[in-house]
Amino acid sequence: MIKLILISLSAASFTYSQNINSGVNVLHQKENIIKFADYLFCEKDYLRSANEYLRIDEGLRDEKINFKIALSFSTIGDYSTAKNIFRQINESSPYYGSSRLEIMKIFFLEERYHELGEYFRTGRNLNLSTENTSGEKLYSLSFLKDQQTIPAFENFVKAFDADEKNEVAALYQLKMNPPNKNPLIASVLSAIIPGAGKIYTGDIGDGIFTFLTTGVFTFLAYDNFKAEHNFRGWLFSGLAVMFYGGNIYGSFASAQIHNARIKYEFNLQLDSFIKLKNYFIPQYDFCK
Amino acid sequence: MKKIFTVLLIFYTLCVYAQTDWVKWEKADLPYSKNNEHTKRDYSIPGESFSEAALKSLASAYWFFISDVDGENCPFNPSCSGFLIEAIKETNLPQGTLMFFDRFTRDLNIFGRMNHYPRYGALHLYDPVDLYTLNEDKIQYLPPTILIKSE
User: Does residue B89 sit within a domain?
Assistant: First the structure.
Protein backbone atom coordinates (compact mmCIF):
# COMPACT_ATOMS: atom_id res chain seq x y z
CA MET A 1 0.00 0.00 0.00
CA ILE A 2 2.79 2.39 0.99
CA LYS A 3 4.57 1.54 -2.24
CA LEU A 4 1.48 2.40 -4.25
CA ILE A 5 1.13 5.77 -2.51
CA LEU A 6 4.80 6.56 -3.12
CA ILE A 7 4.57 5.65 -6.80
CA SER A 8 1.38 7.74 -7.18
CA LEU A 9 3.00 10.71 -5.47
CA SER A 10 6.08 10.43 -7.62
CA ALA A 11 4.03 10.18 -10.83
CA ALA A 12 1.85 13.12 -9.77
CA SER A 13 4.91 15.20 -9.01
CA PHE A 14 6.38 14.53 -12.48
CA THR A 15 3.07 15.30 -14.17
CA TYR A 16 2.61 18.50 -12.21
CA SER A 17 6.09 19.82 -12.95
CA GLN A 18 5.68 19.15 -16.67
CA ASN A 19 2.33 20.85 -16.93
CA ILE A 20 2.63 24.31 -18.47
CA ASN A 21 -1.00 25.18 -18.00
CA SER A 22 -0.95 28.19 -15.69
CA GLY A 23 -4.34 27.16 -14.28
CA VAL A 24 -2.78 23.96 -12.94
CA ASN A 25 0.84 24.97 -12.29
CA VAL A 26 1.36 28.33 -10.57
CA LEU A 27 4.96 28.42 -11.77
CA HIS A 28 3.65 29.20 -15.24
CA GLN A 29 1.46 32.07 -14.15
CA LYS A 30 2.27 35.53 -15.49
CA GLU A 31 3.83 36.86 -12.25
CA ASN A 32 6.16 33.88 -11.94
CA ILE A 33 7.16 34.00 -15.60
CA ILE A 34 8.04 37.68 -15.13
CA LYS A 35 10.02 36.86 -11.98
CA PHE A 36 12.02 34.20 -13.81
CA ALA A 37 12.48 36.38 -16.92
CA ASP A 38 13.64 39.27 -14.72
CA TYR A 39 16.11 36.97 -13.07
CA LEU A 40 17.47 35.86 -16.45
CA PHE A 41 17.58 39.48 -17.62
CA CYS A 42 19.62 40.55 -14.61
CA GLU A 43 21.90 37.56 -15.09
CA LYS A 44 22.48 38.92 -18.63
CA ASP A 45 20.99 35.79 -20.19
CA TYR A 46 19.14 37.98 -22.68
CA LEU A 47 18.06 35.39 -25.23
CA ARG A 48 16.34 33.17 -22.69
CA SER A 49 15.01 36.21 -20.85
CA ALA A 50 13.33 37.50 -24.04
CA ASN A 51 11.91 34.06 -24.72
CA GLU A 52 10.45 33.93 -21.21
CA TYR A 53 8.87 37.38 -21.55
CA LEU A 54 7.44 36.37 -24.91
CA ARG A 55 5.63 33.47 -23.26
CA ILE A 56 3.26 36.02 -21.75
CA ASP A 57 0.27 36.74 -23.97
CA GLU A 58 0.77 39.92 -25.99
CA GLY A 59 -2.39 41.45 -24.53
CA LEU A 60 -1.11 40.94 -20.99
CA ARG A 61 2.32 42.47 -21.56
CA ASP A 62 2.85 46.01 -20.34
CA GLU A 63 5.24 48.57 -21.89
CA LYS A 64 7.98 47.73 -19.41
CA ILE A 65 7.97 44.08 -20.46
CA ASN A 66 7.94 45.02 -24.15
CA PHE A 67 10.82 47.41 -23.55
CA LYS A 68 12.83 44.70 -21.81
CA ILE A 69 12.13 42.25 -24.62
CA ALA A 70 13.37 44.77 -27.18
CA LEU A 71 16.38 45.61 -25.01
CA SER A 72 17.23 41.92 -24.78
CA PHE A 73 17.06 41.49 -28.55
CA SER A 74 19.11 44.63 -29.07
CA THR A 75 21.79 43.43 -26.66
CA ILE A 76 22.16 40.08 -28.42
CA GLY A 77 22.39 41.81 -31.81
CA ASP A 78 18.96 40.98 -33.24
CA TYR A 79 18.50 44.60 -34.24
CA SER A 80 15.58 44.21 -36.61
CA THR A 81 13.37 42.45 -34.00
CA ALA A 82 14.49 44.94 -31.35
CA LYS A 83 13.62 47.93 -33.54
CA ASN A 84 10.18 46.52 -34.37
CA ILE A 85 9.34 46.13 -30.68
CA PHE A 86 10.82 49.49 -29.68
CA ARG A 87 8.71 51.18 -32.36
CA GLN A 88 5.55 49.64 -30.89
CA ILE A 89 6.08 51.43 -27.58
CA ASN A 90 3.41 54.06 -27.17
CA GLU A 91 4.20 57.78 -27.10
CA SER A 92 2.45 58.11 -23.74
CA SER A 93 4.64 55.40 -22.19
CA PRO A 94 7.46 56.41 -19.81
CA TYR A 95 9.68 54.15 -21.92
CA TYR A 96 9.01 56.04 -25.16
CA GLY A 97 12.01 58.36 -24.85
CA SER A 98 14.35 55.51 -23.96
CA SER A 99 13.05 53.41 -26.81
CA ARG A 100 13.81 56.29 -29.21
CA LEU A 101 17.36 56.43 -27.88
CA GLU A 102 17.70 52.67 -28.23
CA ILE A 103 16.53 52.87 -31.86
CA MET A 104 19.12 55.59 -32.51
CA LYS A 105 21.78 53.40 -30.91
CA ILE A 106 20.78 50.55 -33.22
CA PHE A 107 21.02 52.83 -36.27
CA PHE A 108 24.45 53.86 -35.07
CA LEU A 109 25.60 50.28 -34.59
CA GLU A 110 24.25 49.34 -38.00
CA GLU A 111 26.21 52.29 -39.44
CA ARG A 112 23.00 53.74 -40.89
CA TYR A 113 23.89 57.29 -39.98
CA HIS A 114 21.59 58.97 -42.48
CA GLU A 115 18.55 57.17 -41.04
CA LEU A 116 19.76 57.99 -37.54
CA GLY A 117 19.75 61.68 -38.47
CA GLU A 118 16.29 61.52 -40.00
CA TYR A 119 14.90 59.64 -37.00
CA PHE A 120 16.43 62.14 -34.59
CA ARG A 121 15.05 65.12 -36.50
CA THR A 122 11.51 63.67 -36.57
CA GLY A 123 11.42 63.49 -32.76
CA ARG A 124 13.26 66.70 -32.03
CA ASN A 125 10.07 68.64 -31.24
CA LEU A 126 8.69 66.05 -28.85
CA ASN A 127 8.67 66.93 -25.19
CA LEU A 128 11.63 64.68 -24.30
CA SER A 129 14.34 67.01 -23.05
CA THR A 130 16.74 64.42 -21.57
CA GLU A 131 16.36 62.02 -24.46
CA ASN A 132 16.72 64.83 -27.00
CA THR A 133 20.03 65.90 -25.45
CA SER A 134 21.35 62.34 -25.40
CA GLY A 135 20.06 61.77 -28.93
CA GLU A 136 21.71 64.94 -30.16
CA LYS A 137 25.05 63.80 -28.76
CA LEU A 138 24.85 60.50 -30.61
CA TYR A 139 23.61 62.28 -33.73
CA SER A 140 26.52 64.74 -33.57
CA LEU A 141 29.07 61.97 -33.17
CA SER A 142 27.58 60.11 -36.12
CA PHE A 143 28.96 62.94 -38.28
CA LEU A 144 32.46 61.85 -37.32
CA LYS A 145 31.72 58.36 -38.58
CA ASP A 146 30.07 59.34 -41.81
CA GLN A 147 31.48 61.00 -44.90
CA GLN A 148 28.86 63.78 -44.81
CA THR A 149 29.67 67.43 -44.10
CA ILE A 150 30.59 67.97 -40.47
CA PRO A 151 28.91 70.92 -38.70
CA ALA A 152 30.92 73.89 -37.45
CA PHE A 153 32.74 73.30 -34.16
CA GLU A 154 30.43 75.52 -32.04
CA ASN A 155 27.31 73.72 -33.27
CA PHE A 156 28.99 70.36 -32.96
CA VAL A 157 29.99 70.56 -29.30
CA LYS A 158 27.04 72.51 -27.92
CA ALA A 159 25.07 69.38 -26.94
CA PHE A 160 27.88 67.98 -24.80
CA ASP A 161 28.45 68.48 -21.09
CA ALA A 162 31.50 70.34 -19.83
CA ASP A 163 33.32 67.12 -18.84
CA GLU A 164 32.75 65.64 -22.29
CA LYS A 165 33.66 68.70 -24.32
CA ASN A 166 37.46 68.27 -24.17
CA GLU A 167 37.38 64.72 -25.45
CA VAL A 168 34.79 65.53 -28.10
CA ALA A 169 36.81 68.53 -29.22
CA ALA A 170 39.91 66.34 -29.55
CA LEU A 171 37.96 63.84 -31.65
CA TYR A 172 36.56 66.65 -33.79
CA GLN A 173 40.02 68.07 -34.43
CA LEU A 174 41.36 64.63 -35.27
CA LYS A 175 38.57 64.13 -37.78
CA MET A 176 39.03 67.54 -39.36
CA ASN A 177 42.83 67.47 -39.40
CA PRO A 178 43.96 63.84 -39.38
CA PRO A 179 47.75 63.40 -39.36
CA ASN A 180 47.61 61.92 -42.85
CA LYS A 181 50.56 61.67 -45.18
CA ASN A 182 50.35 62.76 -48.78
CA PRO A 183 51.07 59.79 -51.09
CA LEU A 184 52.38 62.12 -53.81
CA ILE A 185 54.86 63.76 -51.47
CA ALA A 186 55.99 60.31 -50.33
CA SER A 187 56.58 59.27 -53.95
CA VAL A 188 58.43 62.46 -54.83
CA LEU A 189 60.65 62.13 -51.76
CA SER A 190 61.46 58.56 -52.73
CA ALA A 191 62.22 59.65 -56.25
CA ILE A 192 64.77 62.15 -54.89
CA ILE A 193 66.29 59.89 -52.22
CA PRO A 194 65.27 56.22 -52.35
CA GLY A 195 63.51 55.26 -49.12
CA ALA A 196 62.88 58.86 -48.01
CA GLY A 197 59.15 58.55 -48.77
CA LYS A 198 58.87 55.55 -46.51
CA ILE A 199 60.70 57.34 -43.74
CA TYR A 200 58.22 60.21 -44.23
CA THR A 201 55.28 57.81 -43.77
CA GLY A 202 56.83 56.36 -40.61
CA ASP A 203 58.22 53.12 -42.07
CA ILE A 204 61.77 54.02 -41.10
CA GLY A 205 63.19 50.48 -41.28
CA ASP A 206 61.71 49.89 -44.72
CA GLY A 207 63.05 53.25 -45.87
CA ILE A 208 66.61 52.46 -44.76
CA PHE A 209 66.54 49.01 -46.37
CA THR A 210 65.13 50.49 -49.59
CA PHE A 211 67.97 53.00 -49.67
CA LEU A 212 70.56 50.29 -49.05
CA THR A 213 69.13 47.88 -51.65
CA THR A 214 68.87 50.50 -54.38
CA GLY A 215 72.28 51.88 -53.44
CA VAL A 216 74.00 48.48 -53.49
CA PHE A 217 72.59 47.53 -56.89
CA THR A 218 73.47 50.93 -58.33
CA PHE A 219 77.00 50.61 -57.02
CA LEU A 220 77.29 47.07 -58.44
CA ALA A 221 76.11 48.31 -61.84
CA TYR A 222 78.60 51.20 -61.77
CA ASP A 223 81.46 48.97 -60.60
CA ASN A 224 80.82 46.34 -63.27
CA PHE A 225 80.56 48.88 -66.06
CA LYS A 226 83.80 50.40 -64.80
CA ALA A 227 85.47 46.99 -64.94
CA GLU A 228 83.99 46.52 -68.43
CA HIS A 229 81.77 43.61 -67.35
CA ASN A 230 78.97 44.94 -69.48
CA PHE A 231 76.51 42.03 -69.06
CA ARG A 232 76.67 42.19 -65.27
CA GLY A 233 76.57 45.97 -65.50
CA TRP A 234 73.28 45.87 -67.41
CA LEU A 235 71.89 43.14 -65.14
CA PHE A 236 72.54 45.15 -61.97
CA SER A 237 71.36 48.33 -63.69
CA GLY A 238 68.06 46.63 -64.47
CA LEU A 239 67.70 45.44 -60.90
CA ALA A 240 68.61 48.88 -59.53
CA VAL A 241 65.98 50.50 -61.78
CA MET A 242 63.33 48.01 -60.68
CA PHE A 243 64.13 48.52 -56.98
CA TYR A 244 64.09 52.28 -57.54
CA GLY A 245 60.70 52.10 -59.29
CA GLY A 246 59.36 49.74 -56.63
CA ASN A 247 60.50 52.17 -53.95
CA ILE A 248 58.57 55.07 -55.52
CA TYR A 249 55.49 52.89 -55.96
CA GLY A 250 55.84 51.42 -52.45
CA SER A 251 56.11 54.88 -50.87
CA PHE A 252 52.79 55.87 -52.42
CA ALA A 253 51.20 52.66 -51.11
CA SER A 254 52.87 53.15 -47.73
CA ALA A 255 51.26 56.61 -47.37
CA GLN A 256 47.88 55.16 -48.28
CA ILE A 257 48.27 52.41 -45.66
CA HIS A 258 49.39 55.02 -43.11
CA ASN A 259 46.21 57.00 -43.80
CA ALA A 260 44.08 53.86 -43.50
CA ARG A 261 45.72 53.19 -40.13
CA ILE A 262 44.94 56.74 -38.95
CA LYS A 263 41.31 56.27 -39.94
CA TYR A 264 41.15 52.88 -38.22
CA GLU A 265 42.65 54.24 -35.00
CA PHE A 266 40.32 57.24 -35.06
CA ASN A 267 37.27 55.00 -35.38
CA LEU A 268 38.60 52.84 -32.57
CA GLN A 269 39.02 55.89 -30.32
CA LEU A 270 35.57 57.21 -31.23
CA ASP A 271 33.89 53.83 -30.67
CA SER A 272 35.53 53.35 -27.30
CA PHE A 273 34.46 56.86 -26.21
CA ILE A 274 30.85 56.22 -27.24
CA LYS A 275 30.83 52.80 -25.60
CA LEU A 276 32.26 54.27 -22.43
CA LYS A 277 29.39 56.77 -22.44
CA ASN A 278 26.93 53.92 -23.08
CA TYR A 279 25.75 55.65 -26.27
CA PHE A 280 24.58 58.50 -24.01
CA ILE A 281 21.72 56.34 -22.78
CA PRO A 282 21.05 56.64 -19.03
CA GLN A 283 21.51 53.45 -17.00
CA TYR A 284 18.28 51.56 -16.37
CA ASP A 285 17.37 50.48 -12.86
CA PHE A 286 15.80 47.15 -13.80
CA CYS A 287 18.23 45.07 -11.75
CA LYS A 288 18.47 47.01 -8.51
CA MET B 1 21.35 -13.53 -2.50
CA LYS B 2 19.48 -13.97 -5.76
CA LYS B 3 18.21 -10.37 -5.54
CA ILE B 4 21.65 -8.95 -4.86
CA PHE B 5 23.04 -10.90 -7.78
CA THR B 6 20.29 -9.58 -10.09
CA VAL B 7 20.87 -5.99 -8.97
CA LEU B 8 24.63 -6.32 -9.41
CA LEU B 9 24.17 -7.86 -12.85
CA ILE B 10 21.93 -4.99 -13.99
CA PHE B 11 24.34 -2.44 -12.49
CA TYR B 12 27.35 -4.08 -14.13
CA THR B 13 25.59 -4.26 -17.52
CA LEU B 14 24.68 -0.58 -17.30
CA CYS B 15 28.25 0.37 -16.45
CA VAL B 16 29.65 -1.64 -19.35
CA TYR B 17 27.03 -0.25 -21.72
CA ALA B 18 27.76 3.32 -20.66
CA GLN B 19 31.44 2.91 -21.42
CA THR B 20 31.12 1.89 -25.06
CA ASP B 21 32.72 5.13 -26.31
CA TRP B 22 36.23 3.94 -25.45
CA VAL B 23 37.27 4.44 -29.06
CA LYS B 24 37.69 8.18 -28.55
CA TRP B 25 40.12 7.58 -25.70
CA GLU B 26 42.39 5.41 -27.79
CA LYS B 27 45.73 6.60 -29.07
CA ALA B 28 45.24 8.91 -32.04
CA ASP B 29 46.88 7.88 -35.26
CA LEU B 30 48.53 11.21 -35.97
CA PRO B 31 50.87 11.72 -38.92
CA TYR B 32 54.21 13.04 -37.71
CA SER B 33 55.77 13.65 -41.11
CA LYS B 34 56.30 17.24 -42.18
CA ASN B 35 53.81 18.57 -44.69
CA ASN B 36 55.17 18.66 -48.19
CA GLU B 37 54.35 22.18 -49.32
CA HIS B 38 55.15 21.38 -52.95
CA THR B 39 52.22 18.98 -53.12
CA LYS B 40 49.93 21.93 -52.44
CA ARG B 41 51.45 24.10 -55.14
CA ASP B 42 49.47 25.02 -58.18
CA TYR B 43 51.84 24.42 -61.07
CA SER B 44 49.21 24.95 -63.74
CA ILE B 45 49.97 27.51 -66.43
CA PRO B 46 47.19 29.99 -67.17
CA GLY B 47 46.36 30.59 -70.81
CA GLU B 48 44.83 34.03 -70.40
CA SER B 49 47.85 36.02 -71.52
CA PHE B 50 51.39 35.30 -72.63
CA SER B 51 52.97 37.46 -69.93
CA GLU B 52 51.00 35.73 -67.19
CA ALA B 53 51.88 32.29 -68.56
CA ALA B 54 55.56 33.21 -68.82
CA LEU B 55 55.62 34.58 -65.31
CA LYS B 56 53.78 31.61 -63.83
CA SER B 57 56.27 29.27 -65.52
CA LEU B 58 59.09 31.27 -63.99
CA ALA B 59 57.50 31.15 -60.54
CA SER B 60 56.79 27.42 -60.89
CA ALA B 61 60.43 26.80 -61.83
CA TYR B 62 61.51 28.87 -58.81
CA TRP B 63 59.24 26.86 -56.53
CA PHE B 64 60.37 23.51 -57.95
CA PHE B 65 64.11 24.11 -58.12
CA ILE B 66 64.73 26.56 -55.29
CA SER B 67 61.88 27.27 -52.86
CA ASP B 68 60.76 23.69 -52.18
CA VAL B 69 64.33 22.49 -51.80
CA ASP B 70 65.35 25.41 -49.59
CA GLY B 71 62.22 25.25 -47.43
CA GLU B 72 59.52 27.71 -46.48
CA ASN B 73 61.67 30.67 -45.50
CA CYS B 74 59.63 33.69 -46.56
CA PRO B 75 58.27 35.36 -43.42
CA PHE B 76 55.18 36.63 -45.20
CA ASN B 77 51.91 35.24 -46.37
CA PRO B 78 51.50 35.24 -49.32
CA SER B 79 55.15 34.44 -49.94
CA CYS B 80 57.08 36.79 -52.24
CA SER B 81 56.65 34.55 -55.29
CA GLY B 82 52.96 34.06 -54.49
CA PHE B 83 52.68 37.83 -54.00
CA LEU B 84 54.13 38.47 -57.46
CA ILE B 85 51.61 36.16 -59.14
CA GLU B 86 48.68 37.58 -57.17
CA ALA B 87 49.84 41.14 -57.81
CA ILE B 88 49.98 40.60 -61.58
CA LYS B 89 46.57 38.92 -61.52
CA GLU B 90 45.10 41.82 -59.53
CA THR B 91 46.71 44.58 -61.58
CA ASN B 92 48.95 44.17 -64.63
CA LEU B 93 52.49 43.09 -65.44
CA PRO B 94 54.35 46.41 -64.89
CA GLN B 95 52.42 47.33 -61.73
CA GLY B 96 52.63 43.80 -60.34
CA THR B 97 56.41 43.77 -60.93
CA LEU B 98 56.83 47.09 -59.09
CA MET B 99 54.72 45.72 -56.24
CA PHE B 100 57.00 42.69 -56.11
CA PHE B 101 60.20 44.75 -55.90
CA ASP B 102 58.66 46.85 -53.16
CA ARG B 103 57.66 43.69 -51.30
CA PHE B 104 61.18 42.37 -51.69
CA THR B 105 62.67 45.39 -49.93
CA ARG B 106 60.11 44.99 -47.15
CA ASP B 107 61.14 41.35 -46.89
CA LEU B 108 64.76 42.45 -46.41
CA ASN B 109 63.85 44.63 -43.45
CA ILE B 110 64.30 42.39 -40.44
CA PHE B 111 63.63 45.07 -37.82
CA GLY B 112 60.27 45.76 -36.23
CA ARG B 113 58.31 43.35 -38.39
CA MET B 114 56.35 41.91 -35.50
CA ASN B 115 54.98 45.34 -34.61
CA HIS B 116 54.07 46.16 -38.17
CA TYR B 117 52.16 43.20 -39.63
CA PRO B 118 49.43 40.99 -38.19
CA ARG B 119 50.35 37.35 -37.64
CA TYR B 120 49.24 34.72 -40.07
CA GLY B 121 49.12 31.35 -38.33
CA ALA B 122 52.05 30.60 -36.07
CA LEU B 123 54.95 31.36 -38.37
CA HIS B 124 54.05 34.05 -40.86
CA LEU B 125 53.18 37.70 -41.13
CA TYR B 126 50.16 38.78 -43.13
CA ASP B 127 50.88 41.15 -45.98
CA PRO B 128 48.15 40.85 -48.63
CA VAL B 129 48.27 42.24 -52.17
CA ASP B 130 45.11 44.32 -51.66
CA LEU B 131 47.02 46.82 -49.52
CA TYR B 132 49.34 47.76 -52.38
CA THR B 133 47.14 48.05 -55.48
CA LEU B 134 46.81 51.83 -54.86
CA ASN B 135 43.04 51.38 -54.79
CA GLU B 136 42.03 53.02 -51.50
CA ASP B 137 38.70 51.18 -51.39
CA LYS B 138 40.53 47.87 -51.24
CA ILE B 139 42.76 48.83 -48.34
CA GLN B 140 41.52 47.14 -45.22
CA TYR B 141 43.89 48.05 -42.44
CA LEU B 142 44.57 45.24 -39.99
CA PRO B 143 46.43 46.07 -36.76
CA PRO B 144 49.51 44.00 -35.87
CA THR B 145 47.81 42.78 -32.71
CA ILE B 146 45.41 40.50 -34.53
CA LEU B 147 45.97 36.92 -35.60
CA ILE B 148 44.79 35.76 -39.00
CA LYS B 149 43.96 32.08 -38.90
CA SER B 150 45.82 30.14 -41.57
CA GLU B 151 43.87 27.84 -43.87
Answer: yes
Mind spelling out the 3-state secondary structure of A90-102? CCCCCCHHHHHHH
Domain tally, chain B: 1
Q: Is residue B143 assigned to a domain?
A: yes
Residue B123 included in any domain = yes
What is the ipTM score, two decimals?
0.75
A208 lies within 8 A of chain B by CB: yes
A238 close contact with B: CB closer than 8 A? no
Is B95 part of any domain? yes
Q: Is A184 in CB contact (< 8 Å) with chain B?
A: no
Tell me how far CA of residue A214 lies from CA of A89, A224, A239, A259, in angstroms.
68, 15, 8, 26
Among A264, A151, A273, A205, which Cα is nearest to B105's?
A205
Which structural domain range is residue B113 located in? 73-151
Q: Hey, are the CB atoms on B134 and A210 less than 8 Å from each other?
A: no
**Helices marked H in A89-193:** 96-109, 113-122, 129-145, 153-157, 162-176, 183-192
Whether B129 contacts chain A with CB within 8 A:
no
Q: Which of A263, A272, A273, A267 is nearest to A179 (CA)?
A: A263
Q: Is any Cβ of chain A less than 8 angstroms from the Cβ of B102?
A: yes
Nearest to A253 among B116, B132, B141 (CB): B132
Instruction: Say yes or no for a CB contact (<8 Å) between A246 and B112.
Output: no
Q: Which of B108, B140, B141 sits opposite A213 (nearest CB)?
A: B108
What is each CA distance from A84 to A66, A79, A201, A273, in whole angstroms?
Answer: 11, 9, 47, 28
Per-10-residue mean pLDDT of chain A, 288 residues long, equals 84 71 74 93 95 90 92 95 93 90 94 90 71 84 83 87 89 93 97 96 95 96 95 96 96 96 94 92 88
A206, A245, A249 ranked by CB distance to B106: nearest: A206
